[in-house]
Amino acid sequence: MDTLTDTHAAALARLGYALSDAGRARILMRLRGGEATPSELVLMLGASKQAVSNQLACLRGCGLVVAERRGRNQVYRLTQAALADALDALAALTLDVDPDCCGPAGCTCR
User: What's the distance, CA 54 to chain centroid?
Assistant: First the structure.
């Protein structure tokens, strides 16, 4: 991709926002391995149903996940297979990042 358009920049900003929360990032990393129900995500995260529901709503709004009704269950998956590859690449890059830099207290790398 030679040119980064405003549309591309907005999409990257949404991805960055989605990944800025550890719960949302964990949901995305889980879904890169395949679809999951909210109940499965609640168990994985150890979070409340409401918290997971809020995170999934955000990820849907960002265009990163979709839900499909199957009987009484909603099943979530990534919107694009390429997103799983991108998440894997981003996860690999984090190994070179100072873990003490941009924590909850803010950026200390100034």
Answer: 13
Contacts of 98 (CB under 8 A, 6+ apart): 109
pLDDT in tens, 77-101: 999 999 999 999 888 876 666 666 6
Q: Are the C-beta atoms of residues 72 and 58 closer than 8 Å to each other?
A: no
Q: What is the pLDDT of residue 108?
A: 60
- Is residue 77 classed as helix, strand or coil in its secondary structure? strand
**Count of beta carbons in the 10 Å neighbourhood of residue 67:** 17
3-state SS class at 18: helix
Q: Which domains does the chain have, with CATH numbers?
A: 7-107 (1.10.10.10)
Report residue 97 as tokens: 């990042």
